[in-house]
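Reposting from the mailing list since nobody answered there.

I have sequence plus structure tokens for a pair of proteins and want to know whether others read the tokens the same way I do. The first protein:
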Amino acid sequence: MYKSFLYPTLILLFLQLKVISQEEFLDFTIDYPDTPFLMQNSFTMVDELTDSFTVFLTKNSDISAYHFDSALQTKGRLLSRQLPNKYKFPLGGTIENTKYTLFYSNKDKSKFAGIVFDFNTRWSNTFEIDLKLRNEILLTQFNHSNKFHLLTASYREDLLYLYIFDNSGQYEKKIIDLSKYDFFGGAKHPARLKHALALGTTIGPFTDIKLVQNDIAYSLDSMISWYKLYINEEKLYLVIDLNTDLTQIIAYNLHTEDVDLIKIPQPSFKQEAKSNSYFLNGKLFQLKINTQEMVLQITDLATKKLIKEHHISKHDSLNIAIGPVRQRGGRYENHREFDKTSKFLRKVTSGNPAILVDEFDGTYQVNIGSVKEINDSLLHAIAFTSPFSVVAVFGSVTFFVNPVALAFYKASDTKAVYIFSLLDENFELTYGEEPENIFYVIHDYIEREGIKRFTAADVFKYKGGYIFGRLDRKTKNYSLLKF
């Protein structure tokens, strides 16, 4: 029997002089007899149209699915053991009414399959997909408008391919033709796409594409990739920062299928520098930095017009920052602070520079710094002892079914040096308070509660809030908290 309730829990977290509350969101019993002892992973798929959602608990081919409507009422539960064992790597899913289809791959991504959960007929079924990626490399995956997508690139031609899957595993294959464009990899001279990307592998492999959803509360740790994929209702933007002289953006209209390659120059430096960028609301925020100077440049993508540029040298004060430089060794250790510009420039340049921007109430919240990966954080330990979300690793390609869980994982898997800045609507410097990242709040809760009795944990976004779910081995309840 399921229990569904919503009431405030008065647990107060005092972080940076802020009071942040959490409340119980949903609680249900795992009522299949052996399921609590099998399930080690979980992820949640939310219907973008209706706000209904399904919680999946998995281990290998065993998948237990619990479906709820937007009022948090139970609408069905299904258990499947039909998926062949070779399909161990979940990639994402497609939702159509009460049908939720999960897509899986084998280890070497040469074979694909799906499993349909139909909560109306209370029926599930598996199928294999006739998808052979000949002369293609799998780049990334994403869910958009309740559909599962794969993005691939041709080995032989200057083409990208976009696969869009329905609930039955049938797919539409769209061609993104880039043959008329010159690209710049790590070299100074233009090349064809396939050659430019090969030249850029010393900086970062093309398969290291980071899906960025502007409504997720990322930490800076998630932004170190030189390839970022942004998607809105109309367009797909693949932003490439392989070359430190310019940012290259592949813009693809999802409706008209028009393609464009946009090149936005980076500021000119006399000495070698590193760069990265972030795209938000039609504005490109570019960061360029070395041990001598740093520039933050904001450009309107539609007009290619420079809006604003902020520059500091090692001899200047860090007037672009609110407060001192923060330095964290593992996101939840005590952090250190310093205020010397020269030290900040040296530390950022020695790592992987990154920039993260969020817009809130007419201001732009900007984090600038660098990130280095570490292996001793709490979440890293959890990922190996009690997996936090289903992850599939294909060489350098890492797929998370739930991008929010990936952002949560990355928030504690690194050490970072960064500054926080606020810009007004005209991109001038202004002042205010740095907000607390919600992922840190959730992680503090995990630390306080302990993790030994929990398994199959997940973090996902729902109706503007963040939901943390986990299975309690003792009570056999799957509980979700809203933060």
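The second protein, same order (residues first, tokens after):
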Amino acid sequence: MTHDAANFISIPSGETGELIWKFSDVTNLEFACLVPGHRDAGCGGSSSCMITSPHPPDIERAPMSLMDRYHVLVHDVSALFGYDYNDTTPDWVHPFIHLILVLAPGLLIGVALYLVLRGILRLWSRPAKPVARMNHVRGLDAGLFSSVLRYTRRQQAQMIMLSLLALPILYLTLELPKQIVNNALESATFPVEVLGQSLDQVIFLLLLCGLYLLSISLNGLIKYTLNVFKGYTAERFLRRFRLLIYRRWRSDAEASEQSEIVPILAQEVEPIGGFAAEVLTLPVLQGGTLFTILLFMFIQDPILGAAALTVLPIQLILLPKLQRRVNTLSRIRIKEVRDLGRQLSEQLRERQGASSGLSAAGASFKALEQVRRRIFRLKFFIKALNNFLTALTPFLFYSLGGYFVIEGRITLGALVAVLAAHKDFSAPLKELFRYYQALEDTRIRYQEITTFFAGTPPRMEEQQSAGVHRLAIRRPPEHALSQT
């Protein structure tokens, strides 16, 4: 080692000085104060020194490989999230950081772009709709959303307001447990001042617990009111929907002979009524709940917040594909039920023999059983897969979050609050997936019900009530024209 100054400097107390050393090679440097006792008191340290001088012109710097660039990207992203990710970090933390900060977000962005592009291509490839589209049931629009909003517009607005009111209260239910652990149980700064009042530790603990009890009570009251209101809205729309279908069936001479109207009015319209109450409220409430929980997690620690989204891309890829297969089987089940009703109706009218009737009905029962078994297998597989993927995230919280608590990056109360928030995180995510699953199925049910009368025109009184009048013109015979 060579240097152009002394290897020590003496400065008065409270002032600063500068000492410049030049090194000819990479070395580890230890420095300390020479005053007796100061080094033991912590006045010193160590540093690793590297050559920072530019390379000679005849020596070219080796280009960075793709893997080196990737590691630089991981370090930059980690620094952006406020985490000092370096060689001193334990080896088992490295794959977690790579997965949480780079791989999972990249996959999530790719899935989101794929879904957006697929939606745009579907809109472009969709054929142009005719201007005048025939409505087979008077009083119902051709689309499900337009029919629901036509009769429940005011109720939908009121339910959306209730849903938005529940979000700030939800954040309080997540924040207060952290405050209880950090400020009421582990804090040593008592008494504390609250609104000009001096409170000891026990009183402050009871105050926070009372606020938590009040917040969860308000949250439960709002959800109860919203659920009751949704039930009223669903039954109101369902009554009107059944009445319109029944009136169309009564006015149809041919359809009135069909027995399929019984399962339509009794069973097939039920999911449509339930979906009508959730068509806007569920995305707003559950999507807002999901956003509130994610916001709370990111405020506690950005890395733990990103860890909550690690398995989301896999859920977005696999679960919709599996659900589309369930929807296909559900359509087959609906057709099988209608075929069974048609067979039973024909047997009652024609009074077929016992042998032929039993064989046809037995074949329909067997086909219906096989379809329902396939539906059960797929539904329970989707549920098991979703539960397994959801359970992977707490593993990241316990391992990586526990390491952060040991290192002092986050508090124990913050980790406990994140774990409690993640339990609520899976519920709105499941509800959003259920909404996506019910969306296509309900649309298909609505189209099949409204097109049930597609091949049978309504009676004359139904057409006249709808404003349609027919004029019958009879041409006289040829001999009558010759006589005139």
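Reply #1 (J.P.):
I read it the same way you do. The longest strand covers residues 27-32.
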